[in-house]
Amino acid sequence: MYLSDEDGREIALDLLGPGQIFGEMSLDGQPRSASVMTREHSRLVIVQKDAFTRHLATHPAASLELLLTVIRRARNLTGIAGSLALMDVYRRIVRALSLYAQRENDRWVVSDRITQQEIASRAGTTREMAARMISHMRSRGLLSREKDGLILHDTLVEFAGAGGAR
């Protein structure tokens, strides 16, 4: 999920996975507030508003799940707003890397499938700035490139703190 402007600049809002929903904001009748694109071939299901609201009315567990999804997204957006307002670009890049990192055995790996543009979009900066920051982190030994992708070293993961690597 992302926002873009008329100049084509983008900021990533969230990375969704299989089985996750989007478009719930349309329940209030207002225009969409974000865009969605897939990174790979995907199958999507469109649920009409009337059918969805009937389902929510008759299935309280679905209503609770929708509420929890909205809360998770609000927390995520609060984190994005905070990082844009309160963090310098270096910390935003570290945060973006740590959010994309997956634990593999005893290390944190950012898959090669994640592009510098995606990292930049998540950090609210340009691809060129993200590339410079990643190069700087590599030269300082904070991360390295291996066949699996970018490996985040302990110092960088600790620097990311609680808002970082999961």
Can you describe this structure?
The structure is a single chain. The chain has helices at 49-58, 60-86, 89-100, 116-123, 127-139, 154-160; strands spanning 2-4, 10-12, 102-104, 107-111, 143-146, 149-152. A hairpin with a 2-residue loop joins strand 3 (102-104) and strand 4 (107-111). The protein starts with a strand and ends in a 6-residue tail after the last helix. The protein is 46% helix and 13% strand. The chain is elongated and about 55 Å long. The protein is an alpha+beta fold. The chain is built from six helices and six strands, in the order ββαααββααββα. The protein has two domains: 2-85, no CATH class; 89-163, Winged helix-like DNA-binding domain superfamily/Winged helix DNA-binding domain (Arc Repressor Mutant, subunit A), CATH 1.10.10.
